[in-house]
Amino acid sequence: MKNFDRKQSLQRLDYYYQVINATVLSKQNAASGLIPASVAITKHGDYTDAWVRDNVYSIYCVFGLALAYRRIDDTSGRAFELEHTVVKLMRALLFSMMRQAPKVEKFKKTHHILDSLHAKYNTKTGDTVVGDNEWGHLQIDATSFFLVALADMTTSGLNIIFTQDEVDFIQNLVFYIERAYRTPDFGIWERGDKCNHGHPELNSSSIGMAYAALNAINGVNLFGARGGPSSTIYVLPDEMTRNKITLQSILPRESNSKEIDGSVLSVIGFPAFAVDDGELVERTREEAKKKLEGKYGWKRFLRDGHQTVLEDHTRLHYNESELKIFENIESEWPLFFTYMVLDGLFRGNMEQVETYRDKLSHVTIDSSLWDPEHPKPPEDYQTVTKDEINSRPRTLSRNSSIDLSSIPPALHIPLVPELYYVPADSIEEEKKHPHSQKRIPNDNTPLVWALSLYLLGNMIYENLLSPSEIDPLGRRCNIKEERPDNVVQVALLSENEELQKILSTYGLETQTIDQISSSFTVLPPQALVDVYSALGRNSKLNLSGRPKRPIGTLATSRLYRIQGHIYAFTPQFMDVDSFYLNSDPDYLVSTFENELSFTNENWSFAGRPTITAILTSAMLGEIHSETNKPLSDDPDLANSLISSNTSNKNLLNFFMNLRSGECNGVRIRLCRLTETVNTSSIAPLDFLVNKGDIAWNNILSANKGYHRNRKGHRRLNFDESSNVGSPVGSHTPAGSKTPRRKSIFGGKLLNTPIDRLDDESYFQDVASALDKLKKGSPPVFKLKSHDVNTTAKTSSDASSIKADDTVSAEQPVEIPPFGAQKDEEGDVLLSLTLGDLHHFDSAIQSLTESVNLYDQIDLLQYLASCKSLDEYIPKLDASIRELLEEVYYKSKKLQYWSVARQASGLLSKTMPNLTNNLTDLLLRQKQVSIGSGTSEVTISSPIGPDALNRIILEQCLDDVREGPVVQEIIISLGNFIKTKPLMFDGILLLRTHYIIIALREEISRSNNFNEEEGIEHLMQLSPYELQSLLGTVMSGADMLDDTVIMVRDKPGGILALSTDFVPSRRLSLNLPNLSIPAGKKKNVAESTHTVEPGKSVTVRVQSAGFNAGNFAHIEVNGNLLSASTRGVHVWVIDRADKLVLELASFDTHISADESEDFAKFIKGLPAGLIVAVASRDDFAEHLTKNAIDALKMLGAQKIDDIKYRDSYALIAEKSGKREETLESHKSANEGPSDALQKEFKLYKKDDIEPKDIREYNINHFFPTTHGRWLRRRKNDGALNRVPRQFFPLTWSVLDNCYGFKIGHHTLLRDPIVFEKTPEEFNFAVVIEGLLSALRDPAERQIAIEIITLIDSMRNKDEGSKLMDKTIDITIIMEDAIVAFWNKWVEKNRSVFEKSPLFKDGSQYEAHKDLASSLFFDLPLDKSEESTTTYLKHSISKFLPL
């Protein structure tokens, strides 16, 4: 960079003024102010129209020159002239777009390509030039770039916007682009996908520019320093963040069809500066450079045929497989060199600047030498003679981009061509030796867009202009080396004083809504939706403002001020009435944690985020009723009532644990709402005040009573002393068809909660819900309330669960109401077939008498199959829909999740944020499919709620509960990908049907269930349990090491526990130590034998009371688990499978019932299990005699000495030798207990008698991994997971053979490899389609292993050539399985011959499924007995490798 010299600067500015005047200003229409992209009309098109994008890029050099003149305090008037030239052009574009205001209004709702603003206008008039469907008008990057420039120019002092109408239109442009993250468009090159078929795509260049625009214009006052609140532009932070996250997840890819594109330079650098991740910026730049850079410029993208001599110019689109012919001869654009110069200047990388200035010097053409009629390679211009210079045309050529006659001979302008192409006679040589041939510039020289950036870069380089002047908002400084250390403020409010007092007894201080300052108002999120719907509203332009879409957590984490009053808005996810998911307190905790993490991760605004949560009795349960006395005289009911409160206690404990100041690594500050004012992010709402047509007071006051009115009102028309709406004890002639599951051990954590039938809030909530359904009429129960005894009687045996007991559309079912025949107990049964009206009246009678919620929902499903949901049932004085709503709300309160899902499916209910979560997956390049078989629907781009609901309804017909489960899966996956994106590595397509199968098999394997029992168990899981189980399946890669400890999670699935195990949310975040110290000798069972690694389980446990450190830890083979709540904690370990079966917690400090439950839990454990016990805080307060006896049964001898807040730990074997039990007790002031340690040798099961050999234990005769690799392959197959770089290597294999074959499905090499590139997303989609032909998920993974091995073997074989055959993957797989089976059957023949399992012989064909299952359980490699060993042999057998 040179030092500033005024005289020299004036000379250089005068030169640039002449250049810009000759090339840009001379083409600006004097009347309209618009600039044509070019004055050339070539065979490639008419460039005389004014493109929005080209106009903004072209005027940037004028803007830069104006700033340069302003900088030197120009007195010639040029600064004023240039500034107003810029204003004139920007206003010309504004007027052209404002004429299409109806399109903006329509597009906000439809996002349809035909409703978009036009991309180009008539240069003379500003009118449209082509029809809506005659051009790829939807180019979000162009509209966004206009807003970026508007923000920069306004901030620099230019006055572009004059009126409030114009402000409102700009605000609506913000709404127009804010959903770019989910809106496919035609992109920067205007043609959509690279085949030019006119298919719009999600383009990173469009999303990046939209994010840049939202970020730049947010808070900008368009009237400048003289403006007020109504002229300020506002952007919601959630929309900004969604675009940012989507952009970062797509880069460096441009779109599904373009694995890389030069346009990403405009996103990671000038003008967007849209990426704040320095590593991603560097990676994107380097990948683009590696794949696209040439001597004359960069390719736009790989296999770009635009303006190559092989392109057929008579058609816009390319034929199938045509793209391959453009490989290595793509046109090269010097434009991208100018981006690289500017990128280096803004980053201060002068080495890059010099490199690309040098490259540009070799590809620019001096205007005195340029002859558009006879273009030459730039190298040839160095030898041009004087005669040739004088012979250049002095009149405007029709094909010329510039009028050379207007340029003074002495003025030498470096012209930047649009592109350089390979001439026809050099094509073959260039293909053989890329970058070896000379290229020729095309007719469109100069490309004004490129020339403008070139001149801008020169002015900055010559120190005539600084980066800070051209980027006054400082967006170039976006890159952050470290993530900011945010603190999330949480303000907890109680719905009433009664709940406030109860919470205070637990040490949780809250305020009621009435107690907060009068200057504060707390409103629901819908109120903020209503407020922002007024933003940008303009009756003259018929613009409605922001569409009423849900508001995200980031927006509700701000406080808002209007006329001195502060408004706080509760987050959307705390709306417990929205869907049955939030009726599960555990799920609510999980959601709260996810939102805290998301807010912390994505908060980049001034001030701290503040989340305002209102706690309700319905949310926390009747915690005040937990006293020492039993909750019921009926012991079975009392036990079930304890179970129903477990989740509520987890929710209460979660809020109490926030007091520690940390939650999953997020810093938290619990505080009163008024205390947050000085530290919160506060956004103004003053734009409402000056809008005379908007009654903003009414918008806000209409929602003021929302939270107060949520209190339950006394139910009407019921006896206040009764606990049911109709006489309890009325006989329901049979039990539930979907009985409750029960724990393996009868432990409380696996029970389905039963309602507290004497809990008045239950009826209040239901009555309130019904009141919403029938306004103006008294809320009454139409159906009899659920009788717990009927469920208990019919649900005692988990093995009785039958999946086909749930009503199915495919077959007649038996529902046990009043009816036709008697069962063995004398009750009558009625056989019902869906859609058969013969028993309609009998079903109504049975429904009237039923006191079983499961029967009621099955009967209602039958009724709904016969008549419309709005059919009125006179006997019950309600419609079928109203009865379903009643059962739905009761099931939510009772936490009968199978019933809730069944009712939800019948009512076609959907989660409000379902499409958002789906979009979160799609935007991170994860496709989602719904359904199975030939009707399976794959969703690859964002869709609206109606379309998604229709797909779910059409695809989930077999079981009405499947639709809600599919919704839960999509919601959970969307949450996971936001907080744990690495979980999705290698996954392209998420098939919900196969995920459900994986969940079912996970349950079946863990509990020895058959398929029917497994699916029924799945339907009974709470939403949080289902989400946890899904997380287990998603993280299956951790379960392969034989030393790893497996943990059964709450819903009965398996979690891997390794030394780098990430603790679940139940683990303490405030651990005094990270591992348990070595135990003292007196407490350590010293082994007298040497145990091989992986052949034992070492258990260490330590406890600390409240004053001694307040923790409870266990280590299993060096893997730490901790408890986060008060009380006594039990870990149960099965040494046979190295499986932690249970992690149960009992708060014996607060309740004697917890102690009784603890006693039942211990007594119910089978013999031989390892039991580790540790206390935390206090567990002695209400420790009952039964609980003490249960510990003594394990061998405890010190338990009678326990006092308040003592430390206590124990390791024992159930029904083992009591003298081998390890126990430690320390009083409250003596510190933590001793660290107990004991090693347990694993059981061996090799001594199996031949007569006892069965399919479940035959794996001991084969070199399998005892189900771990089978489980891994099953889960990964269901999730469609592939290894890194799998698709590029698959492309390489496919390119060297005739094709792939799987069964009857064949994928031929041509035209796939001709049309698609190795890392193209669309190629991956094609391969996924082929692999989906394999129905067994494990087979799919073996197919992946085969392709990977073929590539590896081919790479090692240097002489390998094109394989002249189709690779039959199925044959290779089966040959390997046969070889494996025959080898090990032969090794064990003497034993197998005596086994009944092989009475019909041991041939492979007779045991095909068993052989496959055993083969799929082999390790991948690193062993002689692995799938790799057998597959390699088979590949060599069938392929020339």
State the helical fraction.
Answer: 25-40%
Annotation field: number of helices? 46
Major sheet, described briefly? 11 strands, mixed
Mean pLDDT value: 81
Number of strands: 39
3D shape? globular
* End-to-end C-alpha gap: 59 Å
Q: Strand content of the residues, in percent?
A: 5-15%
Please tell me about this protein's structure.
There is one protein chain. By secondary structure, the protein is of the alpha+beta class. The protein is built from 46 helices and 39 strands. The strands form 11 sheets. Strands 26, 27, 28, 29, 30, 31, 32, 33, 34, 35 and 36 form an 11-stranded mixed sheet that branches. Strands 9, 10, 14, 15 and 16 form a 5-stranded mixed sheet that branches. The chain has a 4-stranded mixed sheet with strand order 11-13-12-17. A hairpin with a 2-residue loop joins β12 and β13.
Helix and strand topology:
Elements: H1 6-23, E1 41-42, E2 45-46, E3 50-51, H2 52-71, H3 78-98, H4 101-110, E4 120-121, H5 140-155, H6 164-177, H7 204-217, H8 237-250, H9 265-268, H10 278-292, H11 335-347, H12 350-361, E5 365-366, H13 386-390, E6 414-415, E7 420-421, H14 427-432, E8 440-441, H15 448-461, H16 467-470, E9 487-494, H17 497-505, E10 511-512, E11 520-523, H18 525-532, H19 553-556, E12 559-562, E13 565-569, H20 585-602, E14 610-615, H21 617-620, H22 635-657, E15 662-663, E16 666-670, E17 682-684, H23 696-701, H24 760-773, H25 788-794, E18 813-815, E19 821-822, E20 828-832, H26 840-849, H27 853-866, E21 872-873, E22 878-879, H28 880-894, H29 897-906, H30 914-922, E23 927-930, E24 937-939, H31 945-955, H32 962-979, E25 989-991, H33 992-1007, H34 1011-1020, H35 1023-1034, E26 1045-1048, E27 1054-1057, E28 1096-1105, E29 1111-1116, E30 1119-1122, E31 1127-1134, E32 1139-1146, H36 1152-1163, E33 1170-1177, H37 1185-1193, E34 1207-1213, E35 1222-1226, E36 1236-1241, H38 1268-1278, H39 1286-1294, E37 1299-1302, E38 1305-1308, H40 1309-1315, H41 1321-1331, H42 1337-1356, ...
Parallel strand pairs: 9-10, 9-14, 9-16, 11-13, 12-17, 23-25, 26-32, 28-33, 37-39
Antiparallel strand pairs: 1-2, 3-4, 5-6, 7-8, 12-13, 15-16, 18-20, 19-20, 21-22, 23-24, 26-27, 28-29, 28-36, 29-30, 31-32, 31-33, 33-34, 34-35, 37-38
Helix pairs in contact: 1-2, 1-15, 2-3, 2-5, 2-15, 4-6, 5-6, 5-7, 7-8, 11-12, 11-15, 20-22, 20-35, 24-28, 26-27, 27-28, 27-29, 28-29, 29-32, 30-32, 32-33, 32-35, 33-34, 33-35, 33-38, 36-37, 38-42, 39-42, 42-43, 42-46, 43-45, 43-46
